[in-house]
Amino acid sequence: MIDPKIKTIAFDADDTLWVNETIFDATQERFFKLLEQYVPEEVLRKHLFQTEIKNLKYFGYGVKGFILSMIETAVELTEGLVRGGDIQQIIDWGREMIEHPVENIEGVEQALKTLSQHYQLMVITKGDLLDQESKLARSGLADYFDKVEIVSDKTAAQYQEILNRHDIKAEEFLMIGNSLKSDVLPVLEIGGQAVHIPFSSTWEHETVAPAEESHHQIVAFASVTEFVKTIG
Amino acid sequence: MIDPKIKTIAFDADDTLWVNETIFDATQERFFKLLEQYVPEEVLRKHLFQTEIKNLKYFGYGVKGFILSMIETAVELTEGLVRGGDIQQIIDWGREMIEHPVENIEGVEQALKTLSQHYQLMVITKGDLLDQESKLARSGLADYFDKVEIVSDKTAAQYQEILNRHDIKAEEFLMIGNSLKSDVLPVLEIGGQAVHIPFSSTWEHETVAPAEESHHQIVAFASVTEFVKTIG
């Protein structure tokens, strides 16, 4: 059951409320296919990941940074031979990703309906501002949330700042998300509670080493439906 | 003088607190120079502007969208002949723009110091989340502001939503900014007050037709220092 102290439950968005990583994965597969005539997939995969990490501090999380990293990888690994039409193709994929229909994860809407009767609900997500706002609007879930926070990163300091700004005590706060690194560990660090609901696919950068996990007892559920049953 | 009803004064950021358009303009000039062997400047300028407008709804305001629009313009107007090295160059400019030192506009810090003694101060700005947060931190001005709102667009509805969320009455709210379209007209529309402080350069998309202006008496000052003198 949920600790009776909890008053606010916050949800991560991508891969917690709706499917996201799947769309990135699919685009990445198309990218590997596009360039397979120049570079083997494994080389592309490794270089793309390194480029994304390098670009995080400039371009942040989200589709735009991903597209720029794919373009940069394409130019670098083909030694500039990549065709203009291929670059255009990558930018077209970016617009497609942004317009991709929002597919809510099974059971989420029912869970929000139940939880919203007992708790103040929030969204705390990172990514591009416009993109996340648009997905929340298109998800049809916006009305369940009292507050929405779109942030540039999810560190302990950023969670603390959000709680302070909304006058929420850490011990009355529970975060739910698919990423141990972004949704669980930083919230535990500031004295809040957190529930891990894994998604089938997690971006490599969001995974944590086992040692990092082991300081805490991580509470995990297979789905948000399973989690909501515990309040029944 | 400032209407005695006013309790909150909000500032736009780019080209109101610090120099921004100048950095975009300079990059754009380098872009024209890079491609002058393929396409005349006037054709590039027109196509780039059209591409930026087309991409606004996908990529929003900010450096990342600008870079993607330059890349797309380069590919389209050279019929794919643009070299990989040129594309890499454009992405490098993007990182340079994001790391560019923040140059506060003259008189702004003194004005904030004075105003913060009498008013609750806010920043309301659009652009990329990470980029705007970073600029505010590097400007050294963050401590003057009680609230910071980074939004995807500045429409009357978005201003109204911000005021509601912070329990601010429109008639007690004054917005200061360099864009009639984004900072002045939408605020007047919801019954707030606004002061126009023009910057030397305004992006074409932010200009408004004279007819749009004429419904209102626009209050304008040449600089924030001139504005602050009116409260003295």
TrEMBL record, chains A, B:
InterPro entries for the chain: HAD-like_sf, HAD_sf, PGP-like_dom2, S-2-haloacid_dehalogenase
Record has Flavoprotein as a keyword: no
Assigned keywords, A-Z: Hydrolase, Plasmid
Classification via PANTHER family: HAD FAMILY HYDROLASE, HYDROLASE, HALOACID DELAHOGENASE-RELATED
Protein name, UniProt field: Haloacid dehalogenase
